[in-house]
Amino acid sequence: MAMTPELRRRLVACVRNYQAETGAKRSVDELRFAELEDEACELGDAVAAALMEAANAPRRGRCRRVAARCVGGNRNTTAARVGRLFFPQSRALGIEPDDQFSPGALQKVVYAGATAPSFAQAARDLAEEAELSVSSARVRRATERIGRARSSARRRGVERWRQLPLPAQRRSPHDHIPAVACVQVDGGRVQIRERCAARAEPPSSGFWRESKVACLLRMQSRTSTADPCPQLPESFANLARMAELTREIKGSASVVLEPEGKPAEREPPRPQRPQVVTRHVIAVRSGVEEFGQDVAAAAWEAGFVEAPRKAFVADGQAANWTLWRKHFSDYVPVLDFVHAICYVFKAAAAGRRLDDLATVYRRWAQWAWEGDLERLLEGLRERQAELGEPEPDDAETHPRQLLAEALQYLENQRSRMHYPEYRRQGLPITSAYVESTIKQLNRRVKGSEKFWSEAGAEALLQLAADYLSDRAPLDRFWRQRPEQCNGTRCYR
Fold first, then answer.
1. Is 112 exposed, middle or buried (0-12, 13-18, 19+ CB in 10 A)?
2. Which residues make Cβ contacts (< 8 Å) with residue 98, sequence separation at least 6?
3. Whole-Å CA distances, 422 to 30, 226, 311, 331, 417
4. Distances (CA, A) of 197 to 35, 446, 452
5. What is the spatial distance between Cα 6 and Cα 154, in angstroms, rounded to a whole number?
6. pLDDT tens-digit map of 28-59
7. What does pTM read for this prediction?
8. 120, 113, 12, 109: which is closest to 70 by C-alpha?
9. 192 strand-pairing partners
10. What ranges do the domains of the chain cover?
11. Rounded distance, CA 202 to CA 95, Å?
């Protein structure tokens, strides 16, 4: 909405009269347009209170007069006139009183706000591509309002699922059952700082907090009687690539290696690797318990409960497997092979010369790929005996410490590392899909200079996840929104 002289005159008149009633001291001429809107909303609260008072008071005659704070220059008006603030055509047009755009324009604004790197960039994109002149503040308000509405809709869906009896939760709500159902979970990072605490000292733990992300994948694949890929792929045998991958995932790799010769041609796909049909994304800031219910309800809605083959893929964090035990215990548990092989690489490189690294690492990596965990663990124990047990003053990067960490990790996760069996069943063995999804989410919400309130982060994560989902949940939301418009403003 453009700031026309007539609009400003009307807003200034309303706010000036309202301030006279409330004793506000700030000059109206100092207020910007956004602040005038806030003042006008407070004025709306006063009008709504007067209307409610009139509705609850005993009737005297055909129409009772009520005191309104400001309607033009007349302080006394009828409830019928005040009632015109409530828009009776909201449902027909799909426009709420707080909406400042048409339904079509609002969809464009929300899409830009949820997918652009920043609200400022979203405003520039709208001006260039949609010919809409919208400030970044308005993009933010519209995006967060729709994000809150989507989060509320998601929670209502979870509550409906929770109210179902257990037999109903074990049946699919439809006949569209996937051949392979896969749930992958992981955590992202986002900075949280509430506006009221902006000038306070940063907490001792910093501003970084964890976001929780899940990918629900409908997949298709074939089963086989023998391992369709018994040999370790070249991408995991390449030392330079593994050093880079380990630094990216674990923060360090113990060694720095140059690429081995010329870049190799793109490796052919692994035989009988499962293919993704659709992806549904969930991203929240809630706790583990609420997140688990979100994922379980979405899996039930997608028909995963009756899938003939099901897999739950995650890294070794304890919270992931707590979620698996509580909500997905009938899924095959799979430890992400990339995390496992990075621990193997760090252990092989710990305290070892580069000349010996290739032989030892590739032997251990092949054992991990084959699921020969006894030989792998025995090799790590022998190496630990050579180096000795970790000492209290050892640094985190000391070879003894690295080897002990890898050995403990692999021993704790050995029940989820039967990779040949997973390949025979046509199940995925890496969490690459959720890792890639987190990188896409981070483009919007993560940055050294990006800070969010809890409510703002939840709203943006919800919308960003919706736009990354192949099921297009926002399409249904926009179709149903006009039916939910009631023409009344939501007051806090």
1. buried
2. 145, 489, 490
3. 67, 11, 9, 12, 9
4. 21, 20, 12
5. 41
6. 555 555 555 555 555 555 555 555 555 555 54
7. 0.78
8. 12
9. 452
10. 1-85, 179-197+207-260+273-468
11. 41
